[in-house]
Amino acid sequence: MRVIQIGFPTTFRPILSKETASKEIIDNCFEKLVTYEGLKIVPCLAESWEIKDGLEYSFSIRKNVYFHNRILLTPFLVYKSICNTLDSINEYVFEVKGIIKNIYFNDNQVVFSLKRKNTLFLHFLAMHYFSISYIENINSKDPYMIEIGTGPYFISKYEPNHAIELTSFDGYWRVLPKIKKIQITYIDSVEERKSILDNRSAEIVHCNFQLPAHDKEYYSEIKNYSCDNFVLGFNFRKKEFNNKNIRKAFSLMFPYEEYTSRLNNEYMPLNGIVPNILLKQKKLVHQKCDLDAAEKKLKMEDFDFSKQLILLNCKGLTYRLTALELLKRNLSLIGIKSLIVEKTWVEFLNSLDNGEFDLAYMSYAPDFADAQCFFDAMISENGAISKRIGFRDSSYTNLSNKVFSELDTNKRNNLIEELNNKIINDCIYIGLVQGIDTKIIRKDLRGFVYSPFLGDYYFYDMNYSI
Fold first, then answer.
1. Are 121 and 59 in contact (CB under 8 A)?
2. What residues have CB less than 8 Å from 111, skipping those under 6 apart?
3. Quick check: 110 and 59 in contact, CB under 8 A?
4. CATH assignment at residue 406
5. To 5 degrees, how large is the angle CA 14–CA 19–CA 21?
6. The CATH number of the domain where 458 resides is what?
7. Contact, 109 vs 61, CB < 8 A?
8. What's the mean pLDDT in 81-94?
9. Distance between CA atoms of 219 and 210, rounded to whole angstroms?
10. N or C: which end of the chain has fewer CB within 10 A?
11. pLDDT tens across 358-377, in order?
12. Domain co-membership, 303 together with 419
């Protein structure tokens, strides 16, 4: 089976993964103690678990499960893998490490003792960072080192920045996968992906365009609201963007209604920073674009109009480029010069980390079904936003911690809404839209599974109908 994707993974290693492309590979090659079935937590490598007083979690490990190297999975190897994850510098596991008091194992179980009750502990263990792996070289810094998992597929070969081949594991503990080999090719060019559709040379194509009418006899189109939220992010390493009034002035320069109309209703307005599928409240109504008010605010804050701004984008995604072109146009109308810089996915991430931008079109996707997990992973002092764009504000971490410790559902939801509104008011981002993922798949391909909490595709149940 041939799959066409966008953006080659930055790593094959679970503890280093920070984006969807790598997560897709990891979720097909590795498994966790527990996993998601829709929004529900269900057993995986742990066949069952018991919770004592909310502070002790005992996981019974499945027997007769093998890693891809034919080594039997044992409670000791699960324990070792979890410890390796917790010892990593991955910011996404920081909160989990902070609540664990002790981990130990016996002949049948792995047991976690917690310092305090946490309603999200199982959600954390369902994240792909806690995939169970057999690591032969624990000290390797190579992001493409092949770790060994227990999943239905393994990486049989790959061509850097171009293609990955997955082969089904003949020792898999469940029923063997029906599709034996999967060739994933990464193509950023929209025209090339359209050409592949025209030639019918792939079974699945990830796209940001509608299925052409002449292909509808051969392909089906599946649309899902994605967890991705698309924003224009400020570089907080630069002094001017630590000024909330300047950030709000820039938010007044973006033509939200014009942008949404250009996207042909393929996206919905973003609800602050949390995707609407995670936070059930009214959609955020964007403020009107007001260039006069924006210019006035900037002058009041002594903004340097002579500076040329760098607007950073990832190549191959037209809807992102459209947003930056609209912003560039409006910046020029009030006398601010700007330059749009487009880079490949890996180069784009490096530029974010190195602070080589003023504003960037970014997306963040939570890998879990709980809004609080998303908040903590994104905006706490050790979260991805803080690490990537230099944002620091302890008040967000403090409010996030209150949500973690609140067991009453209604009070917890109120705190989440308070945190979301704080993000909107402080204008951490220029919040734009939440996407609709479009997958084009061959009509006789059955068993398609899409879940924002599993990665783009989970290939295990796929099969060609006869």
1. no
2. 56, 57, 58, 59, 103, 104, 105
3. yes
4. 3.10.105.10
5. 85
6. 3.40.190.10
7. yes
8. 80
9. 12
10. C
11. 999 887 655 444 555 555 55
12. yes
**CA dist., res. 450 & res. 466, Å (int):** 22
Exposed (0-12), middle (13-18) or buried (19+): which is 261, by Cβ within 10 Å? exposed
Widest pairwise Cα distance in the chain: 70
The CA distance from 437 to 18, in Å, is 19
For 155-182, the pLDDT digits (tens) are 999 999 999 999 999 999 999 999 999 9
Looking at the fold, whether 185 and 236 belong to one and the same domain comes out as: no
- Domain membership of residue 36 (yes or no) is yes
Q: What are phi and psi of 395, to 5 degrees?
A: -65, -30
Integer Cα distance of 60 and 45 in angstroms: 9
- Residue 198 in tokens: 């025209």
The backbone torsions φ and ψ at residue 192, rounded to the nearest 5 degrees and listed phi first, read: -65, -40
Nearest-CA neighbor of 154 among 74, 68, 216, 91?
68
Find the Cα–Cα–Cα–Cα dihedral 169, 170, 172, 177, rounded to 10°.
70
Place of tokens 């003023």: 358
Token pair recorded at residue 403: 């949500």
Q: Which domain holds residue 421?
A: 226-436
CA-CA distances (angstroms) from residue 98 to 101, 113, 115, 172?
A: 8, 12, 8, 34
Give me the chain's average pLDDT, please: 83
- The CA-atom distances, in angstroms, between 357 and each of 250, 278, 311, 354 are 15, 30, 6, 9
Phi, psi of 444 (to 5 degrees): -90, 10
The predicted pLDDT at position 451 comes to 54
For residues 212 and 231, state if they share a domain. Answer: no
Number of domains into which the chain is organized: 3
Taking only the tens place, the pLDDT of each residue in 321-360 is 889 999 999 999 999 999 999 988 778 878 888 889 999 9
Tokens of residue 42, six digits: 């269900």
